[in-house]
Amino acid sequence: MTWLNLPDGNQIDTVLVRSVMLYKGKGIAVRDAQQRLAAYVKIEDHQKGERARDAILLRVKNQRSGDIDWTFLSETSSFPPIEAANSESPQ
Questions:
Q1: What whole-number distance in Å separates Cα of residue 51 and Cα of residue 70?
Q2: Are 37 and 29 spatial neighbours (Cβ–Cβ below 8 Å)?
Q3: What is the tens place of the pLDDT at every residue in 48-70?
Q4: How far apart are CA 91 and CA 39, in angstroms?
Q5: Is the pTM higher than 0.70?
């Protein structure tokens, strides 16, 4: 068995994973061959969600066990929200 360690501390066997779907602003659903929900990772930031989805897919494709470096999920963005950036007046 090859285990995939999820950011919430749970593990899932990579053999069970058949699809990984990103729901914008909500999270990632990992499903098995019968489309049953095998795992769900809540990630509200879309860019971090894409990165997490890609990391899971790569790990499943390569059938490798181990930890994915999930530290990027707790990093704060250095970019201001779009609303704040647009409200600044040029000088």
A1: 10
A2: yes
A3: 999 999 999 998 888 776 678 89
A4: 49
A5: yes
